[in-house]
Amino acid sequence: MTRICQVFRSPLKPEMYLYVDKAEGCARVPEALLARFGEPQPVLVLAISPMRKLARVNAADVLAGIESQGFFLQMPPADAVYTQRESARD
User: Fold this and answer.
1) pLDDT in tens, 3-39
2) What's the rounded Cα separation, in Å, for the pair 77 and 6?
3) What is the pLDDT of residue 85?
4) What does pTM read for this prediction?
């Protein structure tokens, strides 16, 4: 199954991305998540199939998340979070 997805980046959390079905948009994303994510900023639209290679996440996981809950949230890599915390202390 291939799904056309819209990917948004968070203006509040560097390297955090939200994947949704392009046809549904953010309609199924909980308000509490959107409040913490910030105003979604569109990054790209792409067709995702289970076999597609994505940079940091498994395409099958993205599709399963969108199917079951209406979105997939890609968290920042652990080293990016650590670096941000260290920079904030300086």
Assistant:
1) 999 999 999 999 999 999 999 999 999 999 999 999 9
2) 21
3) 53
4) 0.85
Q: Could you give the CA distance from residue 83 to residue 89 in angstroms, rounded to a whole number?
A: 10
Cβ partners under 8 Å of residue 52, min gap 6: 59
Concatenated DSSP letters of 14-64: TT-EEEEETTTTTTTS-HHHHHHH-S-EEEEEEEE-TT-B-SSSBHHHHHH
Residue 90: CB atoms within 10 Å? 4
- As a whole number of angstroms, the distance between CA 57 and CA 42 comes to 18
Which domains, from first to last, does the chain contain?
3-89 (3.10.510.20)
Spatial neighbors of 29 by CB under 8 A, at least 6 apart, are: 18, 20, 70, 71
CB contact set of 82 (below 8 Å; sequence gap of 6+): none
Q: Which two tokens stand for residue 31?
A: 């308000």
